[in-house]
């Protein structure tokens, strides 16, 4: 048990990635991978990731279930990527509104963001005409009460909806746009969801290629240090005579969290070496 790290309950996120192209293998879901890495660095956890088709009812149902989850960790924030564009298959905002029981409304600030975005593209010669048309205005139809998030890299605003202690954040599916919104416009919100969190992660190589043999030692470790998350990076048995394990811990003060993780891994290393397993840091250059 770690009791000297000022450990606090980490912010919990879920991710919905929207798009038929993700389900037919046309593209990989890099957005979820990127969001998970950023949430972890903020000291939060991602409890679930789902990939959904461009289907209004399916998305709405998933939003309802995520925000009312009773099994597992209920999310503080639901990140939704994809489906904010101007075409008929861009259904995300309507589906989120339906899932929350809210109407869609023209959002004046979002409308201006869309107009400015297309004006800037026209000025650079990237599109023939700036301004607005009905398809572009569709991107400014937001759930009632939503906050429009400026998109420094594109035309579709991000969207934040806060309702009954839960929040939904919608991003465009273009990776560069999602990342820019996350790193700029969304920062004040993220500071509330993941307040003063620190995150430490370290990896070890253990000289054994059979997880089942190491299982009793890892069970001992988890009982002793339940706040530390452990994940094996397994490969094929014949590829490598050792296994890589990644250990991560969140808390309030970075130095205390790092020191606590180091002490815990020292205890694990001592135990494993007593059983004649060779243990090295995965950051020491060993392969």
TrEMBL record:
Gene3D superfamilies: MoaB/Mog-like domain
Origin superkingdom: Bacteria
Domain MoaB/Mog: 14-192
A matching Pfam family: MoCF_biosynth
InterPro entries: CinA, MoaB/Mog-like_dom_sf, MoaB/Mog_dom
Protein name: Molybdenum cofactor synthesis domain-containing protein
Organism expressing this protein natively: Desulfonatronum thiosulfatophilum
